[in-house]
Write a structure and sequence with these properties.
- This protein is mainly α.
- The chain has one domain: Orthogonal Bundle (MetI-like fold).
- The protein contains 10 helices and no strands.
- The relative contact order is 0.16.
């Protein structure tokens, strides 16, 4: 019990004192996760909108694959990226293995299916509701998509934040392709696993507290944004 309380006290001291090693790990984690989230939104949101509006032969198969990829084990994604980026892999000449870029790629492969599949469902529901009206008004497909995205902005924000949560909490894939190298590819989740195995509970707890605070902050932001939009609509 004494060890537990001492570890908590030391963990809070590391946070309050601005320990450089601690915040280096935090900043890298946030940077990698936000970059992968941005890339995933750029790819996943247009893909979801395309699947929601257009009808083609393989559409149901594509949607099924995206839904299946939402539950893909992260270690499998990490293994696939590792094989492609290793020296003997087809992309080995890029020398990206064990770099933050490799971690971003792995996280994007995990987040893109989430954003694409969920946004497709959200936009498809709006499309079925407003399609006839937009056709009667001769609204172009591009303008219709922007209208759907604006109308569903809170639901899509929730999807994006879910993608961020998936990215920043990931450990298996980033550990494989990043190598958990100190001062280079060590992020919060991999550092927590490593420091716990080493018995350095203070640093592991400090990182865990920060990770939990980020997760709670993201959820509070999503809830506040929802109420803010509802208040604006009531005015």
């Amino acid at each position: 019990m004494q060890l537990f309380s001492d570890s908590f006290i030391t963990a809070f001291y590391l946070i309050i004192s601005g320990d450089p090693d601690l915040f280096e790990i935090i900043f890298l984690s946030v940077q990698v996760s936000l970059t992968s989230l941005l890339g995933s939104v750029i790819i996943g949101l247009p893909l979801g909108a395309f699947l929601a509006i257009h009808r083609f032969k393989m559409r149901s198969i594509v949607l099924s694959v995206l839904n299946a990829l939402m539950g893909m084990p992260p270690v499998v994604v990490g293994l696939i990226v590792y094989l492609y980026l290793s020296r003997s892999g087809p992309l080995g000449f890029l020398s990206l293995l064990y770099t933050p870029t490799a971690m971003i790629i792995a996280q994007m492969l995990l987040v893109i299916p989430i954003i694409a599949a969920l946004s497709a469902q959200i936009i498809e529901d709006l499309h079925s509701e407003y399609n006839d009206l937009f056709r009667s008004l001769n609204v172009s497909t591009t303008r219709a998509v922007f209208a759907y995205i604006y109308d569903a902005r809170i639901s899509l924000l929730t999807v994006i934040l879910a993608g961020f949560g998936r990215a920043i909490s990931e450990v298996g894939a980033v550990s494989i392709v990043g190598g958990n190298i100190d001062h280079l590819t060590r992020v919060m989740t991999t550092a927590i696993a490593l420091e716990t195995s080493k018995g350095n509970l203070s640093l592991a707890l400090a990182l865990g507290i920060i990770l939990l605070a980020i997760a709670l902050g993201v959820n509070l932001f999503a809830a506040r944004a929802k109420y803010w939009v509802m208040d604006k609509q009531d005015v």
